[in-house]
Specification:
This protein is α+β, with helices and mostly antiparallel strands. It contains nine helices and eight strands. The chain has helices at 31-36, 41-64, 75-81, 104-117, 138-145, 152-156, 158-161, 203-216, 256-277; strands spanning 94-100, 127-136, 165-173, 177-184, 230-236, 290-292, 297-304, 312-318. The strands form two sheets. It has a four-stranded antiparallel β-sheet with strand order 2-1-7-8.
Length: 320
């Protein structure tokens, strides 16, 4: 008999900070990277880039290793996608988060990438600016939300006056999922009146500030990870089919050639992104290659079973 609540794919993935920053004994986990980078946006961007490049290299090594046993499938998503697997199953993991919603041009870029990967596009795209907690009951989430309510407008509207900019999109991946990641901007491709001092306030500063506001409001934060990453998950694996050996009926044994083809497809897209959506020598950034957090919509305070984009909005902040 299947377990009532199978472990999620994320619970079997490690989220290690690979930026080279040593954690500090601080009440705010985001302070260490800012201090290690001398509060310099160029250094902060470099730390984020080191993290995502190192992680991609690690994951590539893992996937092409002859001992690789297969993709990390998400058993909860499997049950939600195919109710026949566990009739009546309901995701029990209630969460409380602040999401940053991507503007139309970033959503279109993602749709383009998904077409290139020939994946089915997800309906809900978001980047978690701050996760308060996860995997609790509905009642436990409400108890955490109540002390936040007096400050909810300040938090969700925070990006009106604190406009962090993200650039240089790239696909990041592991054996469980694939995501489109960005780097905090550091003065590249400035336009429409934005100045170099504006980029002094980075996405990492935004994450730090949101953490601080919530903590001062009396909320204990139990996020899964605080690694230097700004990403939108665009796909999760629910079968081994695309990378398993086709000559064996029902086989889940990985096919090295298919895995290599999958990695090459990702690397080809990343090359295309660098050429078309990264800041050019002229300073021009392709449409979708830049995201100022808060454009169109402010932060989305959301609660409920939102692991795959669901849940309900407590308050949606004002966009610009």
């Amino acid at each position: 008999m299947a377990p009532l609540h199978p472990p999620s794919a994320d619970s079997r993935n490690s989220f290690e900070d690979l930026s080279g920053v040593t954690p500090l004994a601080s009440s705010n986990p985001y302070e260490a990277l800012i201090l290690a980078s001398a509060d310099d946006p160029t250094q902060i961007q470099a730390r984020y880039d080191t993290h995502r490049l190192t992680r991609n290299d690690q994951q590539k090594t893992k996937l092409v290793d002859p001992a690789f046993s297969g993709l990390v499938l998400d058993p909860i998503l499997q049950r939600l996608e195919d109710p026949k697997l566990d009739v009546g199953y309901v995701d029990p993991r209630h969460c409380l988060v602040f999401w940053a919603r991507p503007p139309a041009e970033v959503r279109e870029l993602i749709a383009n990438i998904q077409r290139r990967l020939r994946n089915v596009a997800p309906n809900n795209l978001h980047m978690t600016a701050l996760e308060i907690t996860h995997s609790l009951t509905k009642e436990e989430i409400q108890k955490l939300l109540d002390p936040l309510l007096p400050n909810i407008s300040e938090i969700t509207d925070y990006t009106l006056g604190h406009r962090a900019r993200l650039v240089k999109p790239m696909l990041s991946y592991d054996s469980a999922a694939i995501a489109l990641s960005f780097l905090p901007a550091a003065g590249e491709g400035l336009h429409d009146g934005r100045t170099l001092p504006d980029d002094k306030y980075t996405y990492h500063h935004l994450r730090r500030d949101l953490y601080e506001i919530c903590m001062k409001g009396g909320v204990t934060i139990a996020s899964r990870y605080t690694v230097p990453s700004a990403h939108l998950t665009i796909g999760r694996f629910v079968t081994q089919e695309d990378v398993s050996k086709a000559d064996q009926a029902g086989s889940s044994e990985p096919d090295p050639h298919k895995l290599e083809r999958w990695i090459k497809a990702i690397e080809h897209i990343n090359s295309w992104l660098r050429n078309e959506y990264w800041p050019a020598s002229s300073g021009i950034i392709g449409t979708g290659g830049e995201w100022i957090v808060g454009k169109e919509r402010g932060l989305d305070c959301r609660k409920g079973t939102l692991w795959y984009g669901g849940g309900e909005t407590v308050r949606l902040g004002k966009g610009f």
